[in-house]
Structure formats: structure tokens, C-alpha cells
Amino acid sequence: MKNLIISKSNIIFNKGIPMKILGLLGLMLSLYTIPSFAGVNGPFTITCATTCNASVDAAYQLMEDDLNSSLPNADASNYLIGMANASVLSMKASGSDYANDIDLFVFKVSAGLGADIGDSSLSDFKGNTVRGVGISPSLMVGLNPGALFDLPEWEYFDMNKIKVFVNFFSLDIGALAGSEIDGKASNFGIHFRYKLIDPIAWAPGKLLHWTGVDIHTGFDYSSLTISTSQTTTDSFTSGAATANMSGTVKAGAEISTFTIPIEASTGIQLGYILSLYGGLGLDMSFGSAKSIATVDATFSTTGLASTADGDLDLGQEGKPTAVAPRMFFGTQFNISILKLGIQLDKSLSDAAYGVNFGLGVTW
Q1: Which among 17, 89, 48 is positioned nearest to 261, based on CA atoms?
Q2: CA 28/CA 4 separation, integer angstroms
């Protein structure tokens, strides 16, 4: 996501939109310094329309290069695909539970962040390769139906081993982030967990306790619309020509994804304090990410009757990876019924990562 910050002295795109929002949620993502697009065909282009000459073209080129020097190093199609994949990964751990034996219920508040880091690995990660980010704050309620109802049991399937979870959230981004940013984030999901293999206590008092094997499935729906619109006047000079820009630029994206996950997880509990878990999953995802990119500005040159047209190309539409295997692991600190946890997810088919922070109560 690009936040367009424009001042009289310069025009700068950066990653401020998600950073502002994640700051409100208590999350941080370092996006580093974005290197130059200058000298190549970047997403922002200025084309001289009338009274063009070498000096005029050079002045417009300076303005264009200055904009593109702060844009991420990803083409428009990758940007939108990255936004869609990041949205899918941001939902992980928001709608299920992997670490707790639930006697009756669990309630959790969580904040998820997804990022597609492009061609980098975590060891050589640089901010210019980030193709997209996603955020998913969520509230989750889980129940143990077997504690409330007398459920049927068959030879190979016991309804009493099922746990049910519902997660949801809606956030007015503009109300929290201020006048620079407009948008809304919302999500909804229903998940089921089935205890396939029962736990084993390797030491008394849960000093060392294997949680068995759980199967998880359900669905996640996530929607994020976010944009920034700002007005500017600026100028760049080359030789005898000074190029001027006056107007408004709007940038952002609309992301909507629907995912059906299938997961298997296992873990251990050390005493009553620490739980460790991990697993493998498969995400079947649908939806799209569409760009918001408009330039309503006047381009001219001082002393000449020269005009130009500006265009911001962030792509038209991108879709998440349709079928993506994934691995995950997490840890949880247990303070009586209070649970504090973090989960990390990594897609095995693309460069998308997810991290989720949760605070919950289990009874």
C-alpha cells in the first residue's frame, strides 16, 4: 500500500498507510528505505502533450523520477497479487485455537499482519521488495458444544471432540488514522477443530504434556479498502524549462478475499506456563485486490505553453494464490485463565508471511 505524502518541496510515496494503522493496533513493520526507480519505467508517468522540447521533457522527467524514486520495487501486477496474498496470511490464527484445552469457552482479541516480501528471503529482506501488506484485527469466541449438549458418538467420529469458533471485526480506518487516510477493514470467519489423536501426559501435573493432533477447517472472509488523497503544488527545473504540477493524487487499494483452510496441528505444554505448537495447512483462496489510483492534476511549464498528462499505474486487479500450502508455529504464555500468544505463518508457494498477536481468556 502506498501512502502519498506531498509537500511543496517534494513528492513522496511511502508505506505510511499500513504503518499508521498498525501503529494504532500496537504492531510494527520496518519497511526500510526504498531505492530508486529513476531511469526505468515506474508506475508514475508524465507525458508531454503540447509544446514539447528537450528541456521540457527533461524537466518532466525529473519530476517523474522523483516520484518513482520512492515507489516500491514491484510492478503493478505483483503489487496487487501481493496485497491479496498478504490479506489471506493476515487472518491466520484469528479464527481458531491451537494451544488450549477448552472446557467451556475461549475469548480472544487478536491483531494479524500479513506481508508479501517479493523476491527476498527473511535473511536478506529489504523494504523495496514488499509487494503488499494486510491487517486483520479480530475478536474470536470459541465454544465446546460437548460441554453443553449430549452429542452423538460413532465408531470413528465423536461429536464431543469438536470445538466451534466464530471471529469478526469491523474497523473505520479513517476515524482512527485521521484526515489523510480513508478506508475500512472488516473480517468474519467460522472454524471447527476436531481432536484426531488424544493428548498424552508425559509427566504428572502437565509438567510435560503432548496436546495430541487437531484438525482445523472453516472459512475466512476479509475486506480492506484504504486510500489517501492529497493536494500539492511542486516544480522541477532543467535548463531553461521549469515543470509545474498542481492538483490531487489519490492512491490505495480494495482487497476482498475468501479462504477455506485445512490444517493439522500438534504441540506440547511445559508446566502450566508455556505452550508450543506448530502445524501444516492448505489454503484455498478466492477474491481480488483492485487498485485505487487517480491523478487529477495540471502539468505545465513556466514561460511556455507546454502541458502534460500524468498517470499512476498500480495495476487493475490481482488475485490471491488459489491453492497455497503453509506452515505455522506459535507459542503461548499461560497465566491462569489468561493467555498471551504469538503465531507465525509462512506460505510454501509464494513469499507471503503472517504474524498474529493474541490475548485471550480460556475456561
Answers
A1: 89
A2: 20
Task: Identify residue 56 by its one-letter amino acid code.
Answer: V
pLDDT tens figures, 284-308: 999 999 988 888 888 888 877 788 9
Short-list 268, 159, 249, 162, CA closest to 207: 268
Burial-class residue 313 by CB neighbours within 10 Å (0-12, 13-18, 19+). Answer: middle
CA angle 31, 112, 144 (to 5 degrees): 165
CA–CA gap between residue 177 and residue 199 (Å, rounded): 45
CA 195 to chain centre: 30
Ranking 27-31, 110-114, 292-296, 303-307 by mean pLDDT, the lowest is 27-31
Nearest to 276 by CA among 208, 327, 215: 208
Does 362 score more than 60 pLDDT?
yes
Taking alpha carbons only, the member of 186, 231, 253, 222 closest to residue 17 is: 253
Q: How far is CA 182 from CA 178, 282, 288, in A?
A: 8, 33, 20
CA-based radius of gyration for the chain:
25
Beta-bridge mates of residue 188: 168, 221
In the chain, the largest separation of any two C-alpha atoms, in whole Å, equals 88
Q: Which three cell numbers stand for residue 60?
A: 518532466
